[in-house]
Design goal:
hpI Integrase, Chain A, 3 domains, two-stranded antiparallel ribbon
Length: 347
């Protein structure tokens, strides 16, 4: 017992038993540790003797492990952790940017509602509903934020976000051009990169903000007559081979295989590059009409393909749509006769 020592100590005039083991102190206020119903304040000398006896018999004080009480996870912490996981999983830059924006909006929402540090356990569908349904958010914005938020909370509150029912947004199409050449000429005078983007959106039916913006020269065939996009590079998730019309090939100047066709570097231009350019063009254009956007070139190209081929299947393949129903929306309001005279009943 050379490494053991037993003494009586006091705290606020209340006695307790000190046991020193290997220079570590253990404090006891009663005999519970040695199965004795004796309190130190009742008879400290007797309790001290009892501990000494137990030590001689081989009993030793055990180190207490203080388990840190886990603090409940807050909604902000849950979203933050989920975003970090999505980054590791390799989710798109666009989704990560949207997710971070949702985090900022949620923090602002908690502050406005005076519910800062809301715990995940206390999160209810009513909170999600008031967060999403706002007078200054369109139905489309509400659904976009909902679809971004849902996977971020799914590990903590499965299906909670999905329980919130939102109004279906009114479907609006990008208004097609009836003066495509004049518009393209006006864009050409404004900016060469935007002109090539618009031309490819119309002629190759690629989506401008990712599919076209991220194109490298290795995505083209050697003679520049085809573009090959892998499934992870386009919205449909399917591999696509897209013909390149001659009027586009004529203005392409092939660069280094791994370089982006716009930046002439391995890195593409920033993801808002064409959005910003189009906004500037729109402010100075004399030809653009209301509801005509960068995607209107794709809409116009879709209509042109259908007029030339009368094949919805070919249109679906050209657009890279997952179903024919999606392709049909591009033809809404198009005055094309579905029946011919010879299709009508004969007498």
């Amino acid at each position: 017992m050379s490494n053991l020592k037993v003494t009586i100590g006091y705290h606020n005039n209340n006695p307790f038993i000190n046991i020193y083991k290997d220079k570590i102190r253990y404090r006891y206020w009663n005999g519970k540790a040695i199965n004795l119903k004796i309190k130190a304040k009742e008879n400290p000398t007797l309790l001290k003797a009892a501990f000494e006896l137990k030590l001689r018999e081989g009993w030793r004080p055990s180190t207490k492990t203080n388990k840190a009480k886990e603090k409940p996870t807050t909604v902000v912490q849950a979203i933050t952790k989920a975003i970090e996981t999505k980054i590791v999983q390799g989710c798109s830059e666009r989704y990560i940017k949207d997710a971070k924006r949702v985090l900022v909006l949620w923090k602002r929402y908690e502050s406005e509602r005076q519910i800062k540090n809301l715990k995940v356990d206390d999160l209810k569908a009513s909170y999600i509903k008031t967060f999403l349904i706002r007078a200054n958010w369109s139905a489309k914005t509400q659904r976009t934020v909902k679809s971004t938020l849902s996977p971020l909370l799914n590990d903590y509150k499965p299906n909670l976000v999905g329980k919130v029912v939102l109004k279906k947004p009114t479907s609006t199409l990008h208004k097609p051009f009836n003066n495509i050449k004049e518009i393209l000429d006006e864009v050409k005078m404004f900016n060469s990169n935007l002109y090539l983007c618009c031309l490819m959106t119309y002629g190759c039916l690629l989506r401008p903000h990712r599919e076209i913006r991220e194109l490298t020269w290795k995505d083209f065939s050697d003679d520049l007559s085809f573009i090959h996009l892998s499934g992870n590079r386009n919205k449909s998730g399917r591999n696509r081979i897209v013909p390149v019309p001659s009027y586009i090939r004529d203005i392409l100047v092939k660069g280094e295989r791994d370089n982006n066709i716009f930046s002439n570097k391995p890195q593409p231009l920033n993801q808002d590059y064409f959005k910003t350019l189009w906004g500037r063009f729109k402010r100075q254009s004399n030809l653009l009409e209301q509801d005509q956007t960068l995607y209107s070139f794709r809409h116009s190209g879709a209509i042109e393909i259908f007029k030339r081929t009368s094949s919805i299947t070919k249109l679906q393949k050209a657009m890279g749509h997952s179903s024919i129903n999606v392709s049909l929306t591009y033809l809404r309001g198009l005055e094309i006769a579905e029946l011919k005279e010879e299709d009508m009943p004969m007498v």
